[in-house]
Amino acid sequence: MSSPLLGIILGFAALIGTMILEGSNPASFLSVSAITIILVGSLSATLTSFDLKTIRNLPKFFGFAFSPPKIDLGATITQFYEFSIKSRREGLLSLEDEVEDIEDEVMRIGMRMVIDGADTEILEDTMDQLVLADEKSKKEAQEVFETLGGFSPTMGIVGTVMGLVHVLEGLGTGNLEALGSGIAVAFIATFYGIGLANLVWIPLSNRVRFLIGQLRINREIMVDGMRSVQNGMSPEMVKERMIAHVPEAEERAHLRKSMAAE
Known about the structure:
This protein has eleven helices and no strands. The protein has helices at residues 3-21, 32-49, 52-56, 58-66, 73-90, 96-100, 105-115, 120-169, 176-230, 235-243, 249-261. The longest helix is centred in the last third of the chain and has 55 residues, at 176-230. The chain is elongated. The model has no long low-confidence stretch (mean pLDDT 85).
């Protein structure tokens, strides 16, 4: 189970558990009209904020947040370390067959340019453009989730106001039990709006931001590895240059130890 799915399940489980501990019936919090106005209203406002193409990519955004591509900094560093060893022994052309098997598009294009003898400045510029284009699509996901998280509580308030207006219309009946029930139902919309914002939309936006940061580190390692291999640096220097991009000291030490043991 992915961590965001586990987090969402735990969050809603905590809410339901609290309802039960307080003696409330969780079924009393179910309201089709409230969830409809929250979801449809938030999506409509988000559609107004972005273009239709971006909204159509929502399934892809969810896919990236819940099942992102595997980011293994150690594997990336090891691969360029091995590239540097082979290229120093047999020349850059010896990497041709291995490059064709690389799955990552940015790495494959960059290493192909290295083998073809591209100028360092052209290589760096091309890599920067590819990385920026890749990050742009991911940032759209972050912005959409963040926007949904902003509109969701507001739509909850709108739903609550609509419910209270309906309750106030019945003040003349004198039925206090019905009035109390109506007010409770009206506030369910606010409950849904705040709950979805803080348990789903905003956490997903934060997760995408975290994943973008991890991808950026991985890309920086790739680009530095390409430059190092292109310039014919020693394998040990290539390894140390790439490990320097890893933010945690413990992980850097672990990478050095694991690569020394291979």
